[in-house]
Amino acid sequence: MNHQHGGAAGGKPAASPDNVAELHGVDYSIDGKQVFRGLDIEIRRGEVTAIMGPSGTGKTTLLRLITGQLRPDTGRVLVDGTDVAGLGLREIYALRRKMGMLFQNGALLTDLDVFENVAFPLREHARLPERLVRNLVLTKLHAVGLRGAAELRPQQLSGGMARRVALARAIVMDPDILLYDEPFAGLDPISMGVVLRLIRSLNDALGISSIVVTHDVREISQIADASYILSGGQVVARGTPAELRDHPSPIVHQFMEGLADGPVTFHYPAPDYWQQLLDREGSA
Amino acid sequence: MSGLLREMIESLREFLERLGSMTRFFGQVLWLSPATFMRFRLVVEQVYNTGALSLVIIMTCGLFVGMVLGLQGHDLLQRFGSEDALGTGAALSPLKELGPVVTALLFAGRAGTALASELGLMRATDQISAMEVMAVDPMRRVVVPRFLGGVIAMPLLTAIFIAVALYGVQLVGVQFLGVDQGQFWSQMRGAVELDDIREGLIKGVVFGIACSLIAVFEGYNAQPTAEGVGRATTRTVVISAVVTLVLDYILTAIML
Questions:
Q1: For chain A, which has fewer Cβ within 10 Å, the N-terminal or C-terminal residue?
Q2: For residue range B232-251, what is the model confidence (pLDDT) as tens digits?
């Protein structure tokens, strides 16, 4: 492994021990479309960091870069001081054991019940006595309030419950970093409040670092220690939620206030409206 | 004309690219197979899913194929006054051709589509991605057990299809049309050699490898959308059917 704590290597910025993940000058494009241009982000250890931005700005792509599922075109992605891009599959898998990820839809394995879903990483990675597996799984399910749902199938769960089961699965291996991909999407206010409180309490109780990708500004502002706003493939603002609210950038203002029109336009680029309506050929 | 030529070249390039991906995928599956056999429970689950759950359709179709063979064979042999030779005529075609081929086509339609759509949906709902993030190799955990399950199930299904088809021939020939029971079985025993049985089983194994590979490849590489999963399922049936018939010709030519 390519640990680079405490010193610059070959002129590259050194990883700070205070940061659990860092992206330096990351360029990434897919199908000819540039997603990131010189992206710089630092995720501090032990904090809840929010990554926000309008839809389609590459927030989920950012998580996939951190997990090593995608490789940057240029630049470096450091996780725990290790450059993810330089790792082989075996090393990537070793690194991912330090991570847990909550997917937008939970991504529970539909052929397993709730208990087996949470037990899945334990069964795959550790040879533990069945009694210990049972106790660990029930402990994690209890932490998310779903010990009583252990025997349900994923199809029987509501969206909020599925998200919480996925959260129990994400923490069952005691990771150092938890990644959340749109954890509040499609949840009712009660479920949203539950997930919100869990993100903060798990972060503090387990002493982990959390990266939350979301566009639910008000909710995440209640629990985030630091926030980044992405737009146009770059970080347009960073700081505490309070600092972002007072940020002078028009796009940050539009995003934080949820305005329909602004630097991010309401209309998708199109020919002149009247011209198109009067056009006899019917080009649309 | 040049447009048509360009389109043909593009199609050929795409075909070769896909063939290359599938060959590499097959190599990966073979490489991971011995280790997956160590987790035999996963393979047994898939033998059940692809094999046991296909039994009803295999047996039903086998019975009717056999009954049709019995009717046709009897009608043909009656013209020469040798309907007692039904055992000979009707035994070899299910054993060497119809058994493996029809089983493979049914397998592709039932188990192959189930495999492809299951894997495609797993990708569309991020289950494959979740496994990757949990440091679990989806090829090892999901793809290879399903492939091996299919490879084991196919020859077994072929054998069952053949047995039921022969019963169907006997049912029509002996029970309904009055061919002598002793003549029927003794003629069949005299006509069938060990090589014929081996040919049927070899075809079953080869078709099992081909159909299972196509199903898991198409499913695993499906576009993560509803349309993508549908397309993967359709491709599984179409490609499996064509490959089965092409392989059948090649294997028959080799083993004749």
A1: C
A2: 999 999 999 999 999 999 99
Which band of pLDDT confidence, cut at 50, 70 and 90, is reported for residue A236? Answer: confident
Per-domain boundaries in chain B: 41-255
Of B126, B132, B137, the CB nearest to A105: B126
Closest-approach residue (CA) in chain A for B124: A107
Lookup: tokens for A70: 């995608």
Q: What is the pLDDT of residues B183-196, one digit of tens each?
A: 889 988 888 888 99
Please name the amino acid found at residue A61: T
For residue A229, list its beta bridge partners: A52, A237
Residue of A nearest to B135 (CA): A93
What would you report as the CA-atom Rg of chain A, rounded to the nearest whole angstrom? 21
| Chain A interface, Cβ < 8 Å to B | 67, 69, 93-94, 96-97, 99-101, 103-105, 107-110, 120-121, 124-125, 166, 169, 173, 179
Q: Which domains does chain A have, with CATH numbers?
A: 19-244 (3.40.50.300)
Residues of A with Cβ-Cβ distance to B126 under 8 angstroms: 103-105, 107
Please indicate whether, in this complex, the C-beta atoms of A107 and B137 are within 8 angstroms of each other. no
Q: Work out the minimum CA distance from A276 to partner chain B, whole angstroms.
A: 31
pLDDT tens for A186-212 read 888 888 888 899 999 999 998 999 999
CA–CA dist A9, A6 (Å, integer): 10
- Interface membership of B141 toward A (CB under 8 Å): yes
Cα Rg for chain B, rounded, in angstroms?
21
Burial B180-210, CB ≥16 within 10 A → b, else e = eeebbeebbeebbeeeeeebbbebbebbbbb
pTM of the model: 0.85
Is B134 within 8 Å of chain A by CB? Answer: yes
